[in-house]
Predict the structure of TetR family transcriptional regulator.
Amino acid sequence: MVKQERAARTRHALIQAAAAVFAEDGFTPASLSTISRRAGVSNGALHFHFASKHALAEAVTAEAARTVRCITDRAQEGQAHSLQCVVDATHELMSRLADDIVLRAGFELAALPARRRESSLRTQWQHWVEDSFRRAEHSGSLAHGVSWADGARVVVAATAGFEVLGGGDVSWLSRPSVTRLWEVLLPRLAGRAGLEALVCAGSPPPPGPPAREHPALEHPSRAHPAQEPPVQTRPAQ
Amino acid sequence: MVKQERAARTRHALIQAAAAVFAEDGFTPASLSTISRRAGVSNGALHFHFASKHALAEAVTAEAARTVRCITDRAQEGQAHSLQCVVDATHELMSRLADDIVLRAGFELAALPARRRESSLRTQWQHWVEDSFRRAEHSGSLAHGVSWADGARVVVAATAGFEVLGGGDVSWLSRPSVTRLWEVLLPRLAGRAGLEALVCAGSPPPPGPPAREHPALEHPSRAHPAQEPPVQTRPAQ
């Protein structure tokens, strides 16, 4: 293994270990020696890569932010309907929060009183949801009487709630749970004309071979489409 | 001052000081000497009342749970419509989260990985919302096609989101912000027959002299009804 590759692997292992220790012990009690031991590297190697525990927290947050960006970019790929983008991104975000320790730790670090103002992770998600709702309003896809700001507020709050409640009870993050959220919300948020085309359980897999741009973000329903048939929205009341 | 009264005051001051220090420093870094200094009592007095920092956290959580119970009891007093009870309780909960340091600390302690399973504060709120939605379904007040479980899930998630996001940006907790949440949700959750009677901004003050049962929970719009006229729900789409 060349030197650079080994350094990158060590850095990756340290970020994973830090996220796991922050999640189990909390950020403040987490010790650097526990993190280096968990990563299987020496204290010296940890200090070579990260000057402090705060630097490790920054790296965890940056990695989580990159994942959120991948999720939102991927949701927009080839998807014209902005509300469906938000539905798809929400499914992907919750699914990843259930099994990606770095993403989970990134959001939990963002909630700490001491780091709340520094971290942009929640803001990044909020801005993307707001931009999507602005596009939906611009294209006339929102229900009459619902502004982009009011629609986005409900979705940002509900997804923050799912994220936090999912930290204690992972069933909040399941695909059926997120689907039922959208079954309640979409008939209120989407205009009648476009509602029938929206899929609360997330977009079905695209035709042809699976996309390979983001192999780390393999979509469960794309990998095993037969396991979970898409649930259509119920008609508006 | 008699001895018992003095002891109760010291205990109260210690719980307030602990909540403030937990909120500012985080639970783990918070030191008992900082808490006793902030409460204006000796370390000995602190240890007389609380054997450990965990005992203080338990007391903060119990006090927060009592406040949540007062809020939900009060919302149900004389209010026949279960969905209006939930609207009113949500306004009161968010308003109190903005200025009651013990309630805020109670919810933040409940979110800590180490205490997540012990604390019943979020569960207490969730169960009350679920019971209210069950009553609404039983009385035929929910919109056709919306189950009590799905309605409650959205409200529990959205209120958890408001609580967490409000920790970083207090504008989430304002009455207009919570009102706009209900302007989106109620036309989807409530049956058409009862929708017109529901007030997204919270119930108007009852006739006659203001109730005195829970003076600590004075409702801003009851105290100054002229400042914020109730905003009616928009008609369903």
Q: What stands out?
A: The first helix of chain A runs from residue 3 to 25. The domain at 1-51 of chain A is CATH 1.10.10.60 (Arc Repressor Mutant, subunit A). Chain A has two domains: 1-51, 62-205+215-237.
